[in-house]
Amino acid sequence: MQDASVGGWAKEAHLSVETLNSLYGLNHRFLDLAAARSQGWAVTGRGGFSPSLAGQLAPLSAAQRQAAAGCPYALFDLRFQDDGHWRARLQDPWAWCVAEEALVDDETVAFVRLALFYAWHVAAGAGLAAQLLLGMNGETAAGFRRITVNRLPALVATEAAHLSARWVERTAFWSALTAAALRADPMALRHVQLYGLQLTAAAQLPGR
To answer: Torsion angle, CA of 39/37/78/168, rounded to 10 degrees?
Structure first.
């Protein structure tokens, strides 16, 4: 059943099963990380994480979080829609290390390292995968395509402070997602996942 679901999402989104499976794994890891942060991550101006959302995620079992993670888009965010932020970072990531490196726990740093490698890998490919999966704007995706993998460690040092739940302000989305996973309701999960696709598409409209 899970393979059929993965294949269905891949066909609808025109993405490889391998790319989506990696994203599902990152989403699951993020939900586990977020559930353990009962006090929330510090709000960074544009990002942050809601303690109430951590409370919604904490009761879910590993299997329920895995089900919730099966969205064909990232459930985490690293300010990927902020072209100005990433333009500065990608031009000279080392320039920001002293000014903005924050004290972040090892698990968060490890997750951000994987997330940025995935973002670089997806952006390096052809098509709109980075926009569809991560909510990147075209300019940011192009910037990631221009850098080499050895530039990523310097980005991890500063960007870990910006990790947040995607659409953290959309409490209805997260409440519906966690409730459907808790009930083990595949149809409800499907509806919530489709709602997320609408949010992804709306964010790519001109002027957003």
So the answer is: -60
φ/ψ of residue 92, rounded to 5: -155, 80
The CA distance from 133 to 130, in Å, is 5
Residue 10 burial (10 A CB sphere; 0-12, 13-18, 19+): middle
**Of 158, 204, 113, whose CA–CA distance to 121 is shortest?**
113
Question: Among residues 192, 164, 159, which one has the least CA distance to residue 30?
Answer: 164
Choose between 42 and 189: higher pLDDT: 189
pLDDT band at 45 (very low <50, low <70, confident <90, very high): very low
96-126 pLDDT per residue, tens: 555 455 567 889 999 999 999 999 999 988 6
What secondary structure does DSSP assign to 38-88, as a single string?
TT-PPP-SS----HHHHHHHTTS-HHHHHHHH--SS-SEESSTT-HHHHHH
| C-alpha to C-alpha distance for 165 and 150, rounded to whole angstroms | 26
**If pLDDT is split at 50, 70 and 90, which confidence band does 43 have?**
very low
Q: What is the DSSP string of 130-182?
A: HHHHH---HHHHHHHHHS-GGGHHHHHHHHGGG-EETTTT-HHHHHHHHHHHH
